[in-house]
Predict the structure.
Amino acid sequence: MVSVVSATLCAMSDHTPGLWDSIDDLHTWLDSHRPVGGREGLLLRILKLSEEVGEVAQAVVGATGQNPRKGTTHTWEDVQSELCDVAVTALVALRTLTPDAREVFARHLKKVTDRSLGGTGTG
């Protein structure tokens, strides 16, 4: 699943104008508004991923009606939105770790693609 998300993000970075500019802007905005800085702030930003993944799980449970007490509370579009939040949060966390996030991500994606597709990736 991770490699599918990674491949999608790479395709988006090639076809979505301003993806990395938006990630840089979000990183800058978050840095100017975070109540905790330093190493603790970095760790909290990375932990934000867990919160977002939990929201994906909640949306899937809601879309499938798995909670009989609540029934169907979400749509598959909600799941898509929550998955996008995970992707954006991950990229902002990566940008927080390094100003070279775009290059780091591209290198990692190439490794994952080569490993998964045997160097026969499409695109």
Remarks:
- Residues 2-117 form one domain.
- Residues 1-7 have pLDDT under 50 and may be disordered.
- The two ends are 19 Å apart (CA to CA).
